Amino acid sequence: MDSIEESGDFRCWDELIPDSLGLIFKNLSLQEILTVVPRVCKSWRRVVTGPYCWQEVDIEQWSHQCRPNTLDRMVQMLITRSSGSLRKLCVIGLANDQSFTFIADNAKSLQTLRLPRSEISNSIVEQVAARLSSVTFLDFSYCRNIGAPALEAIGKHCKLLTGLRRTMHPLEVIDKVSQDDEAFAIATTMPKLKQLEVAYLLISTEGALKVLENCPQLELLDIRGCWNVKLEENFIKKFSRLKVVGPLIVDYFGMKGCDDCSNYSGSSGYMAWDFVAGNVASDYDDEISDGDWEDDESLEDVEMRFYDGFDLDDTAFDWPLSP
To answer: Which SUPFAM superfamilies match (predicted)?
Structure first.
């Protein structure tokens, strides 16, 4: 039998079209895409330095462990590589308004934006919200420095928004009396919402009713930990498509939001969330390291290859690592 090569059906990996390679490479870790794939050959390097791997950027796990300065540089590098085709961005802990502005400046195709635990301000959100007009899902959970003004700006400019996650931590709202102003901002500017998660936000029954009144397409309302909200079961039944989770806690604070809520029904057994302050501290520590690179190559090396156009041989070779 003729071999695959002899029959002409064999195709070299480096001859695959960039779009196909990009789909394959997205199954690799961030480290592998940035430090291993570019070493293989020129065609693979062109794929990972171009937009093919970066239309959807999810570095939540990596960003949770890196220093703010390193995170800012990584976000800017990956967004630059996307060349305006970025559709999804998931990052934990942006350290300043500058990074948020950079994201907004490159958001013409952006649909999903998840920025939990980010240090962004009301003023910067108000300034750049108009540039986020294509966003359909937004996660501003645990963002302590924003409030109703930011949400109102998002609602006025992001007319396609159907999902909002604004989950807080009890320790972050302990000094607040009420956050009904956020509920009112959501209700008056986001009529197309289908999913709204405001767990532990200090809203009242009035705020929740305002949302239900003005968001007729709502399918999921997560009000776990919103102890001041009292919704009668008979009243909820009037909304045939609506699923309400909370205000009592059905499992634990670490649920991941909409993806998990579908597994719970109104008849689920409730149990109190066992809040242990000592355990929470580990979740809110400052960033620990520059990420979990397993080899010695630094982000500076990756950036240098990208911006300086480092050339590769056609075959794999030992990459010069930083000391």
So the answer is: RNI-like (SSF52047)
